[in-house]
Amino acid sequence: MATLDDVAKHAGVAASTVSYVLSGKRPVSEETRRRVLSSIALLNYHPNAGARALASARSNVLALFVPLRPDLYVPVMMEIAIGVTTAARAHGYDVLLLTNEEGTAGIKRVVSSARADAVILTDITLHDERIPTLRSSGVPAALIGVPADPTDLDCVDLDFVAAGRSCVEHLAGLGHREIAFIGESEALYRRHVGFAERTLDGVRTAAADAGVGLVHRPCESSFEAAAGALARILEERPRTTGLIIQNEAVIPSMLSLLRTAGRAVPEDVSIVALCPDQIAEQTSPRLTSLTMPATELGTRAVAALMRRLREDGAGSGRVELLPPVLTARGSTTTRESGEQ
Amino acid sequence: MATLDDVAKHAGVAASTVSYVLSGKRPVSEETRRRVLSSIALLNYHPNAGARALASARSNVLALFVPLRPDLYVPVMMEIAIGVTTAARAHGYDVLLLTNEEGTAGIKRVVSSARADAVILTDITLHDERIPTLRSSGVPAALIGVPADPTDLDCVDLDFVAAGRSCVEHLAGLGHREIAFIGESEALYRRHVGFAERTLDGVRTAAADAGVGLVHRPCESSFEAAAGALARILEERPRTTGLIIQNEAVIPSMLSLLRTAGRAVPEDVSIVALCPDQIAEQTSPRLTSLTMPATELGTRAVAALMRRLREDGAGSGRVELLPPVLTARGSTTTRESGEQ
DNA sequence: TTGTAAGCGTTATCAG
DNA sequence: CTGATAACGCTTACAA
């Protein structure tokens, strides 16, 4: 491996000069610049990341923490991870993948060993235990999700309150008077995972505002859970004609159950799902859905960090809530059409 | 941030001594060892990763390359990524997440900048363009997947030939005489992605051996593709009673289509899927499946790299094919029972 | 068993 | 516009 010095010698300049043509932090004559560049190419020189990190106190690495359990929001997480990676590369950063299991200790580890310059956290709960660490250590951080008190933190998320509201309004607008909300698993509500609670809030207030009946059923990812949830809904609330599904894992189960129960979609029951577009388009009928903008969340999180790093930790923290986008597809229709 | 020197001063020893109690590379008296350790704890010292990498020429980082397209084997990729991360941590390594899009250049970049000590590649094609780079650069590498010529390379994968065979044998053993194989999308075969071709091989030879009829239908991840594939099968091969599904994304669609077509599972048609167990258990009926051991693949890939790194690049390359495990669940039954 | 000191490859300050 | 030259924080012979 060629080193900076090798390049300098080859080009007949000082090492520092090579460094400067690379960083552009001070003007270099076009002449020498060209010479250096060609030496670099010739020797196939690549700056050593460790040395760079040591000398500059910057690793150019972002740490991304994802939930360990591989059954939680899988497609969304994957999309976020890829979005983050792609965006980070565009800024010259690499991404370190870590699991939430390491928790607070993990954050401390990567930060105090200077392995990463900043962190991105996911699966945020309202009173996330990692936040005190974030605050006290002053690490540049971006949360994908919003805690109860986001003061001074950079957060990005879908506006889940508005999203929940939007789902209800869409159904209410189509004339549905009884709506069921198939939420996430109970565990998420117990953990007070922010997005789950916020969606529920939005759904509830919108239902109240619109004067439509509402029942909320948490639902795990198994077929049985889906079956149980649906059965209770059909039994206790037989007039339900609108369904909002948040746990994307049960979408196929729900569709299948409804068919078995003899309820046609959308004729008998309309469905709106909260999920990535791609998933909404893989079913039949295609689902009217509230887009889960996972890639965008990743990109924005990275952008927030770049801002922070540029401002050298200053800046006051800001919460970016992406407005929900509902796309009507084949799974919703007016209640009237269903009754004929 | 406390440095090694701070700790040394505080403990009243030489810097090297601190380093040695940390690395264990030379004996240290219990007495001083304790003193050092307590100083470390007291000062909350964490070794600087960059400095360490520079001095030791080891970054303690593994680079994991995953496909960019977020719709390709999502659950499997996610599970592999988490498996790799968890296993790597257990060995004191961190994981850098990179996309295949960077391709060969990406490998060169992380390796020649010494950002990572070794790489893990996924989505391997038979004549993968990245392999020459691997060979010439001599980077420790582990492939999740097997190319046509794996000489000198460390590869781990499910034994897809045996897996394909196993699926057919299971169905044939239950008396099915006409089998359809719903494969991956055409694009994968065109790219000669190893596992797709190998599965097909296994399925074909086993069908020939068992003397059962077989038709292979590549299938993309959309509902339409699934519908098209199934329609052709039912039309051209009406006596088909056994289905093998490899593209896990169409599993829900297939189940739904079969129901619509009035074919009961498993009474009229038996299904065996190649997918993670978790997915096989989320449907109704639960699917007889050939386990996709994604976590295990990640773990083994890391183990292979640890071996390589220990042997300092020596070692001759070895291909580890995990034997397929078929779990009978509710989606397969004897053909006879179906005919009554 | 422990200390000393020479790097590792960059960056950045200070001169010129 | 360019050259020297200290750091940066750690590892690892080499001595003692």
Question: Explain this structure to me?
Answer:
Chain A is α/β, with parallel strands linked by helices and 340 residues long. Chain A folds into three domains: 4-47, lambda repressor-like DNA-binding domains (434 Repressor (Amino-terminal Domain)); 56-158 and 294-322, Rossmann fold, CATH 3.40.50.2300; 160-292, Rossmann fold. Chain A is built from 15 helices and twelve strands. The first copy, chain A, has helices spanning 4-11, 15-23, 30-43, 49-56, 74-90, 103-112, 130-137, 160-173, 186-190, 194-210, 223-236, 251-260, 277-280, 294-310, 335-339, and strands at residues 61-66, 94-99, 118-121, 141-144, 154-158, 178-182, 213-217, 242-245, 270-275, 288-291, 319-322, 326-327. In chain A, strands 2-1-3-4-5-11 form a six-stranded parallel beta sheet, with helices on both faces. In chain A, strands 7-6-8-9-10-12 form a six-stranded mixed beta sheet, with helices on both faces. In chain A, helix 1 crosses helix 2, helix 1 crosses helix 3 (30-43) and helix 5 (74-90) runs parallel beside helix 14. At the A-B interface, helix 4, strand 1, helix 5, strand 2 and helix 6 of A face helix 4, strand 1, helix 5, strand 2 and helix 6 of B. Strand 2 (94-99) of chain A pairs antiparallel with strand 2 of chain B, so a sheet runs across the interface. Chain B binds a DNA duplex (16 and 16 nucleotides) through helix 2 and helix 4.
Number-wise, the strands of chain A total 12
Strand content of chain A: 15-25%
Q: List unreliable stretches of 5+ residues of chain A.
A: none
* Average pLDDT metric of chain A: 95
So what's the oligomer here?
Answer: homodimer
Q: Report the sheet with the most strands of chain A, covering strand number, pairing sense and barrel closure.
A: 6 strands, parallel
End-to-end Cα distance of chain A, whole Å, is 76 Å
- SSE topology string of chain A: HHHHEHEHEHEEHEHHEHEHEHEHEEH
- Placed side by side, the strands forming the largest sheet of chain A appear as 2-1-3-4-5-11
- Quickly count the helices of chain A: 15
Q: Evaluate the radius of gyration of chain A.
A: 25 Å
CATH topology of the largest domain in chain A: Rossmann fold
Task: Give the largest chain-chain interface (CB within 8 Å).
Answer: A-B, 63 and 63 residues
Would you identify the CATH H-level superfamily of the largest domain in chain A?
Response regulator
CATH class of the largest domain in chain A: Alpha Beta
Structural class of chain A: alpha/beta
Task: Tell me the count of domains of chain A.
Answer: 3
Helix content of chain A: 40-55%
Q: What overall form of chain A do the CA principal axes indicate? A: elongated
Would you identify the CATH architecture of the largest domain in chain A?
Answer: 3-Layer(aba) Sandwich
